[in-house]
Amino acid sequence: MLQTDLSLSYLYRLAKQQEGEKPTLLLLLHGYGSNEADLFSFAPELPEEFFIASVRAPRQIQYGGYGWYDINFMDAQKFNNVDQANESMKTIRTFIQEVIEKHDLNADEVWLCGFSQGSILSYALTLHDQQNIHRVICMSGYPAPDIMGDKVQSNFNDLEFFVSHGTEDGVIPVDWARNGEKLLKHLNIPHVYKEYRSGHGVVPQNFYDILAWIKEKM
Fold first, then answer.
1. CB 164 within 8 A of CB 180
2. How far apart (Å, rounded) are the C-alpha atoms in residues 93 and 131?
3. Cα–Cα distance measured from residue 5 to residue 2, given in angstroms and rounded to the nearest whole number
4. How many angstroms separate the Cα of 37 from the Cα of each of 25, 57, 66?
5. Is-contact 103 13, C-beta < 8 A?
6. How do residues 121-149 score in pLDDT, each as one tens digit?
7. Do the beta carbons of residue 8 and residue 55 sit within 8 Å?
8. CB under 8 Å to 152, separation ≥6 — which residues?
């Protein structure tokens, strides 16, 4: 059931926890034009130790979907609405604090998993100010230069990324995703980068590789 008691609407799955332990939050950020139910479909396959929250982006767009910020498809110079992206990142930070407090989660470790626009924000959110984010999964996204700006921090504490992209992606070119790998190498952030012969989506092998990486890093 959709929850509306925090700054973002969300679906959640409780963790199966050991007595006295606080579960780790795995936050799912969907792509442009989608909604909270999209990535939440992965929840039954993800480790039971996680408290999973899949949030709905705040901006309603055409055909019933939602977005984290508007995209101007007619102007390549102002493609992303950076002000809206920054506002969404602030809201995501607020939500993380709220959901940790409400559900008594581990405040020291947060995992992010984003697809497309959600992946773009996962890069920026973490690299601008890591705070308590330690594991990041970026699917079919890239570090958008206009959103990243020059705010990237220089030192990171126990941070790792899993990045994946389709070589036939007609929405976000694979070369843009490869720039993400270059950035992570430049920042000396441990990461796994994988490409799949697929379009703008998550094929089964991609998901299986993500699941194996999650289990390895837990």
1. no
2. 10
3. 10
4. 17, 11, 11
5. no
6. 999 999 999 999 999 999 999 999 999 98
7. yes
8. 127, 128, 187
Question: Please, which residues bridge with residue 135 across strands?
Answer: 111, 160
pLDDT beyond 90 at 98: yes
Residue with tokens 């910020």: 69
> What CA–CA distance (Å, rounded) separates 68 from 116?
11
Residues 39-87: tens digit of each pLDDT? 999 999 999 999 999 999 999 997 779 999 998 766 556 678 999 999 9
pTM: 0.95
Q: What is the DSSP letter of 47?
A: -
Residue in this structure with the two tokens 């973002």, named with its chain if needed = 8
Write out the H or E segment, with its range, that includes residue 125: helix 117-128
Question: Residue type for 71, please?
Answer: I
Cβ atoms of residues 65 and 57 within 8 Å:
no
Tell me how far the alpha carbon of residue 178 is from its chain's centroid: 17
* Cα distance between residue 39 and residue 31, in whole Å: 9
Token pair for residue 150? 């020059």
CA distance linking residue 153 with residue 142, whole number of Å: 17
Model pLDDT, residue 72: 78
